[in-house]
Amino acid sequence: MGKGVRAVLGLVLLVLGICGFFTVPASLTEYPVVLPKEGQPKWARGAFHVHTTRSDGHGSPLAVARAAKAAGLDFVVLTDHNDFTPPAPTWVDGVLLVPGVEISTSAGHLVAFGMERPLEGMQRWMPASDAVRAVHAAGGMTVLAHPVQRHNPWTDEPSAHEAKGFELYSADTFFRHAMRHPMSRLLPAVGAYLAKPMHGVMVLVAPESGPGERFVELSREESKLGFCAHDAHGLPSYESVFRSLAMYLPPDQVPLPLPEDAKAAAALVTGALRGGAAVCAFRALGEPEGFILDGVDAVRREARVGEVLKVHVPGIPDPERVRVEVWGAGRLGPDGTSVELTGEGVVRVEVWVQGPGRFFGSEWRPWIVPSPVRVLPRGPGI
């Protein structure tokens, strides 16, 4: 056996050994971290930003629907690359498939969904502002895809302000971050995935400050909606990613079961996604049913300086393992669930959970992520 072969074999054995080091503790992890309360109304839940074999995904729409059903999802927003004539909404194996598209523009990738009319004048690598305006002209919603990702960031400032939404957390970005940190993040995730795929995906969840800071910056002039993107291609498996996070739609806007008519059901789902009341939840940590951010105008996502928001944490939380995080124009009160609005601008409020870590320890991870709140000048009498 030559030296080169022995070196490669040694490297493979080393990688397998490192992965195996994380496989055993992964098999002992327990989810969810926060147990649900009985009697809470069920929220519609689904996957946002999913690719199939219509572009670079590894699974057909049928395979995606089956994975979503196995993961307990109600809908999937399909966003194949440059699929400018996506199919109509349809029910597949009990899951609503909602059409969308991820557009390759001159400045990055743009997710669009909810179009009421056909997209016109579309082509790959078109100017970013033209793409945003074309989607809006078709009655659709625009979301900046992985806008701060090193691999494919959004680089055009004017169109960044024109888009209506922002992918704050992206499973694809987490994976690419892990690729840059193979020893501390990627190999532990691979080892965990071998024992418990959902935990392997959650090990990848390591938020960086850049997306949140950029999100707040863009939201100062006009409220932007926050999304968590699966950006799923089938590796890791669709089902494991779907079990790890989802977009949730409140029951007062999207009552279950969804309408049997696929077009009517898709209109409800897209309307709620673009309305601002939807929340993202890393559902492996717990379900968000019962979460309320009280004190916010639910339609405008606005409040005023001096007002106090109240976070109602759902489920049966352990105070030592659940905390409220605040960024921007607000500060957390001494009770740990009240947020005083301290100045004009934007405030981000999230609930984080101390979940299973890469080995036997634990790590703080985002759990419930609503869209940010614009803070307006102090009102009379406040």
From TrEMBL:
Q: What is this protein called?
A: CehA/McbA family metallohydrolase
Q: What is the lineage of its organism?
A: Bacteria, Pseudomonadati, Myxococcota, Myxococcia, Myxococcales
Domain Polymerase/histidinol phosphatase N-terminal spans what residues? Answer: 46-107
**Residues annotated as transmembrane:** none
